Amino acid sequence: MSVTNNAVVSAALGYVEANPAELDVVRDLVILALLGPPITLSGTLPAHLACRAVVVTPDWRVLQTNDTVLPGWQFPGGHVADEDCSLLGSALRQLHEFTGIDPNLLRPESTLPWDLAAMPVDPVPELDEPEHVHYDFLYLLHLAARELMPEMALAAGTDARWVPANEVPGRLGTKLRRGSQLAAASR
Question: Which residues does the UniProt record annotate as the domain Nudix hydrolase (predicted)?
Answer without folding.
Answer: 46-185
